[in-house]
Amino acid sequence: MGDVSGKGAAAALYGGLVSGLLRTLAPRRRRPAELLKALNDALIERKVEARYVTLCVLLWDPATRQIVMANAGALPPMICRGSEILKMRVEGVPLGLLDSREYEEVPFAAEPGDLIVLYSDGITDHLSPAGTEYGRGRLAGVVRAHCGLPAAAVISEIFHDVERFGRRVFDDQTVFVMRVL
């Protein structure tokens, strides 16, 4: 899950560059941290001033139900187990800003029923008419309240609550939800 800095055509072009590089680099790198390092190195070689990308990479191993995560400045995944939100600490520097960066990998042992929510900052930064941010806490409350629903229904509940909070959208809003079977 990623997000390019800026808006408009320039951001879209940079996003296209990142997407193309990911398609080229990912098949040869099996570890999320290796992929982020290689992508950062490639973006530094093609440096575009004031452009960067945040990206969280998750690698799923169905045999062990383990997720290995590496993060380059993106919001960490929100994981709901039962009615509890598990705190994931996975951090890193956005891609394309600083050269010679190393990224850490964080393993997570998933359990059947876990709900994994990836979301863009356009959700948490969404503003009410009074100028209040939607925030991670409010998002966590919606996820917790609907954790038992199918993934598609959780997405609907999140967007319904965001729209009820405030109708004016100023940034992209992306939500990706997975359920561990």
Task: Characterise this structure.
The chain is α+β, with helices and mostly antiparallel strands. It has a single domain, classed as Phosphatase 2c, domain 1, CATH 3.60.40. The chain has five helices and eight strands. The longest helix has 18 residues, at 8-25. The two termini are 21 Å apart.
Layout of helices and strands, plus pairs?
Blueprint: E1 2-4, H1 8-25, H2 32-45, E2 53-61, E3 66-72, E4 78-81, E5 84-86, E6 106-109, E7 115-119, H3 121-124, H4 135-145, H5 151-165, E8 175-179
Antiparallel strand pairs: 1-2, 2-3, 3-6, 4-5, 4-7, 7-8
Helix pairs in contact: 1-2
Quick structural gist:
The chain has 181 residues and is an alpha+beta fold. 34% of the residues lie in helices and 22% in strands.
- Mean residue pLDDT: 95
**N-to-C order of helices and strands:** EHHEEEEEEHHHE
Segments where pLDDT lies below 50 for 5+ residues?
none
Amount of beta strand: 15-25%
CATH topology: Phosphatase 2c, domain 1
- The end-to-end span amounts to 21 Å
Helical content band? 25-40%
Enumerate how many helices there are, as a single number: 5
